[in-house]
Specification:
With about 575 residues, the chain is α/β, with parallel strands linked by helices. It has three domains: about 90 residues, ATPase, nucleotide binding domain (Nucleotidyltransferase, domain 5), CATH 3.30.420.40; about 150 residues, Rossmann fold; about 325 residues, no CATH class. Helix content is about 35%, strand content about 25%. It is built from 17 helices and 22 strands. The strands form four sheets. The protein has an eight-stranded mixed β-sheet with strand order 13-12-11-14-15-16-22-19, with helices on both faces. A five-stranded mixed β-sheet has the order 3-2-1-4-10, sandwiched between helices. It has a five-stranded parallel β-sheet with strand order 6-5-7-8-9, with helices on both faces. A hairpin with a 4-residue loop joins strand 17 and strand 18. It starts with 9 loop residues before the first strand and ends with a helix.
Length: about 575
């Protein structure tokens, strides 16, 4: 379909693991706005095994809500839009549904090219099932057997700095060529080569006749430099090709989208990167806690670090969370006394039935505890990728992101916004001064996909209030004892009135600033506390806007230290929820 840069109305289909959403954007009173969304069940799996059925249900729902005819008698999207209303000007698709792609990673050195290639694999929905490198001491036959037995969907090959090693790389590729020759067409893996570009044509000549082959820029041009962002775009295309091959109905969607179907994580990363360009001095964080994966996107001045972790998704990944962590790592986040056996039962039931929703207060508490742990582990895993560019006020602390944008039904469908906010504060443990934004309508990935069609629309929708501002958050960090004053706040309201507040270490406070009310702040850290300006250094914030939950001061400390006694810990959680209005 057409992707004209002047498209006024854009329809985006978001095929998630559980739900398929259709989102309509159009001009309203001279400005681009989010108009409406429809939803239906994702039909990738049994019994329909065709993604198209869920898409049509979501389109029918959107047509009912909007009163707009989007699908013609030929069951295709009407394009372009007509003067009388039917149809849309452009169409885009993002996707996260389907089992993680099985990936074989190939590189020369385990601690250099293999690690870089693993990080590249983690920028899409994948599971690394095997690695080949020079030091694994297997011969060609053993490696061939491994490929045939594991049947990877994608083989990622790196290794060799520019104009570097030749024979070593070709030796690693030999069993790949043999496997592609032996396997039937439907089981042949796609190959993405992102190594020494001097060898790209030679490797293409070896593998192109045998399987689908793509060459990308070297992710490790020198031993000291890792540059994976260009290769991420090529990997997104390989993902698209795999989904077309594996899932019925995706080919038709991709045709509607003009061959531009992309992973939802890539679209989220694109949007976060775009936002980081608005102010090159601030880093932006995007967090999506989904059933299929937890995705983290961190960007600074246009440099994006993206991590997609199916092992930390709240569906099948909940079993992995349980297996990889001591049960106490999860139950420490519970605000209700729940027996360990009940926690285990819920986790395994969720893995079996990922579409199930929390039906009781216990279920909700467990799911929110899982979300906290999933976000924390994902941030820890991605952290080394961005810590050279984005640093916190002290070693090992979370960087001062601004803003932080969060999505995922565990957050957007929580019974109270206070619960969503507390999950994010506990999991991310932000520092400095930031704003927490909740993507209640799952717009960010859709806007990332639509950005290449109409960038102006993306900007105007983001500025329209379609995303919910939970509140500005100020997080003083200090080493003083609990109860010691760490921050003095002078608030000047637009009405002319003033108020003064003193915050003590250990407190979580909400200052009176109504939704969309504007004020200016003078912040004075006490006893060497750091609000992102350096120890003891204050600042003036000329304009702060009240969020849905006001203005939040989180002086609980970094890292957050919870009482060892479960009863005291639960009481503290309940108190924090009440402070936030939950």
């Amino acid at each position: 379909m057409s992707s004209s840069s002047v498209a006024e109305s854009i329809l985006v289909v978001d095929v998630g693991e559980i739900n398929t959403r259709t989102l309509l954007f159009d001009v309203v009173d001279g400005y681009y706005r989010f108009v409406a969304s429809g939803s239906g069940p994702t039909t990738v799996g049994s019994p329909l095994h065709d993604v198209g059925h869920g898409v049509r249900m979501a389109l029918d729902h959107l047509q009912d809500i909007s009163g707009r005819v989007l699908v013609g008698e030929d069951e295709r999207i009407k394009e372009p839009a007509h003067a009388d209303g039917p149809g849309v000007d452009a169409f885009a698709v993002v996707m996260s549904a389907g089992a993680p792609l099985k990936v074989l990673v190939v590189g020369l050195l385990r601690d250099i090219s293999v690690e870089s290639t693993q990080r590249l694999a983690e920028t899409t929905y994948s599971q690394i099932i095997e690695t080949f490198h020079l030091n694994d001491h297997r011969n060609t036959q053993e490696r061939l057997n491994s490929i045939v037995r594991l049947r990877p969907d994608i083989i990622l090959i790196a290794g060799g700095t520019e104009n570097g090693s030749r024979q070593s790389v070709l030796k690693l590729i030999e069993p790949i060529g043999l496997a592609c020759y032996l396997l039937p067409d439907e089981l042949k893996p796609q190959v993405l080569y992102a190594g020494n570009q001097a060898l790209a044509k030679e490797i293409e000549a070896l593998l192109m006749p045998l399987t689908s082959f793509t060459s990308a820029p070297n992710i490790r041009p020198t031993l000291e430099v890792e540059r994976s962002e260009p290769a991420q775009a090529f990997l997104a295309r390989v993902y698209r090709q795999s989904r077309i091959r594996q899932i019925p109905g995706v080919q038709e969607l991709d045709t509607w989208a003009g061959g531009l179907l992309m992973p939802a994580a890539t679209a989220l990363g694109r949007m976060v990167r775009f936002l980081s360009l608005e102010d090159g001095s601030k880093a932006v964080l995007g967090v999506d806690v989904g059933v299929s994966a937890t995705t983290i996107a961190a960007a600074f001045d246009g440099h994006l670090c993206l991590g997609v972790y199916p092992q930390y998704g709240l569906g099948d990944g909940s079993k992995v969370l349980m297996a990889q962590n001591n049960l106490r790592d999860i139950t420490r986040w519970l605000y209700i006394d729940i027996p360990d056996e009940e926690v285990r039962a819920y986790v395994y039931n969720k893995a079996l039935y990922p579409a199930s929703l929390p039906a009781t207060a216990h279920d909700l508490a467990i799911e929110q505890a899982l979300a906290r742990q999933a976000i924390r582990l994902s941030l820890e895993k991605l952290g080394p990728s961005y810590q050279n560019d984005i640093t916190g006020p002290y070693p090992g602390s979370s960087p001062a992101f601004e803003p932080i944008i969060a999505s995922g039904s565990v957050l957007t469908k929580a019974p109270a916004l206070a619960q969503s906010l507390l999950v994010l504060l506990d999991a991310i443990q932000p520092t400095g001064i930031t704003t927490l934004i909740l993507d209640q309508n799952n717009l960010v990935a859709a806007l990332g996909a639509a950005a290449s069609i109409n960038p102006t629309m993306t900007v105007q929708v983001m500025d329209s209030g379609a995303l919910l501002n939970l509140g500005a958050v100020i997080c003083p960090v200090s080493d003083v004892r609990m109860g010691t004053p760490v921050l003095r706040v002078h608030m000047h309201y637009e009405s002319g009135s003033k108020e003064k507040f003193e915050i003590k270490k250990g407190e979580l406070s909400v200052l009176p600033l109504a939704f969309e009310q504007v004020a200016s702040l003078h912040l004075k850290p006490l006893h060497g506390a750091d609000i992102g300006m350096g120890a003891g250094r204050g600042c003036r914030v000329n304009r702060v806007v009240g969020g849905a939950l006001g203005l939040i001061i989180d002086a609980r400390g970094r890292p957050l230290r919870l009482p060892r006694d479960p009863a005291k810990r639960r009481a503290l959680y309940i108190r924090w929820l009440r402070v936030l209005g939950g």
